[in-house]
Protein: Drug resistance transporter, EmrB QacA subfamily protein
Amino acid sequence: MDKQQQKTTVKQWIALAAMGLGVFMGLLDVTVVNVALPTMVKDFNTTFTDLQWVLNAYTLVYAVTLMIMSKLGDMYGRKKIFLGSLILFVVASAVNGMAPSLLILDIGRGVQAIGGAGMMSLSMALVASNFAGRQRGLALGILGSVIGISTASGPLIGGYLVENFGWPAIFYVNVPFGILAVVLTIVYVKETPSYGKNQKIDVGGMLLSAIGLFAIIYGLIVKEGHPRWSWTNPEIAILLIGGIAVMSLFIFVESRVAHPMINLGMFKERHFVGTVIVAFALGSGIYAYNAFLTALMQNYIGYSAIETGVRQLVMSVWSLVLGPVVGLLTARFSSKWMISIGMLIGSIGYLTIAWVIAPGVSFLELWPGMVMIGITNAIVNPVLNTAGMAGVAPHEMGMASGLLNVFRQFGTTVGVVGLGLIQNNSYMAHLNTALPQVKMPTQALNGIKDALINAGPFSGHTIAFSARLAKSPFAHQIQTIVVRAFDNGMIALTLTAAVIALIGALAAVLLLRTHQQSQKLDLKAARN
Structure:
């Protein structure tokens, strides 16, 4: 290798570092705020219900704008849109850290999410266009590692920052790292062609997709906040049915415009359909499950946020260790089998955790299953990125990347709601069966039962072990019932996650291409 090639290679890896830094910040901010909520409640003198919008604003806007930012990147140059998104993210982070009111913080989180969506949706496409051949697989593998680590390290990083510097630190920390990423992007990331110079922006498609996704995801958020409401409740049903109707109209419009926002022909490729199904399974199974595992470790086992984050390193560390290796292996082995085996390992991991969950469960019993879930994330994420780009035309790489991320994020939202409902139903069923056996005055018992059900599985522990209830002679009996109710719900949702992972494995086996087929398509795409 001559000096010029070495210089070029070094520039490529520095470019990857810039994109990885942006992705890490964007995804970390999806989860890092969770551990700061108790401190924010005190500082803003508000309730957890009002603070939910600090989370929901980011989740909603992030999911809604992923495809739009992808399309703009394909049309006008991915580096330009990525850089603009990065700058927007840094500025919004600084505003959030200084936010004088909850309203300003909520608005800032929405703006920050636009930047996060632009960074996330274009990162894979930029990597794919900045690297070639075997190096592309390695680079996408490293990016997959970053994705895996960022989603799992939120409790640890957030807990450390909040405990030592206060909640504004979770936003301020983005500023210096963001500025570094901006400089590295300007200097080292290569721009892609502006494929849509002579095209009109599909404003109708962008608006319809934004409205449709917003309605569906907001409907799921409302259901998550009111688990006892039925799906036919007008506040939920109108949003979900309306969202589905708008997305149906979006598909109709996109099939008839000259330059659509999304090339629907991509969904005629069974391989691409397979990758988005796996992305959805990854989000609804692996990523959504983290919230419930964190609740188990903090609310019921009793670990602090930092202690929980440290123990969850047995999951996240595998992305760091295996990601680059897996990226190299994709050049030699079939993504079909790597993804299916990876998802199968995760399914076994969930079954292992479900087997040990019981009152008094400890980290020593949970870690083998957690390791297997971490290995799944470490294998599937990098390979999925590479598989999703296989055979995709250069001018559509941004959209392919965006769609993978939309399905992954949408899967996470659906998973949090769906797994939460399964847990809640099992939790309430056990309370309704076991609490009547407590021999205490009926009125007092009904009051306790209503409080526990309204609090839900996450907060029921706080009520059961409160100082007020501890004075009751029935405290121990009620506490045992609440812990068993939570455990029953946790087992039910863990088994559901195992099934989701198994479905992802089957989708990979049945729909993804073989290694030889992918190589032929990559050669064809390179010639074109």
User: Anything to note?
Assistant: The chain has 21 helices and no strands. The radius of gyration is 23 Å. The mean pLDDT is 83. Residues 201-258 form one domain.
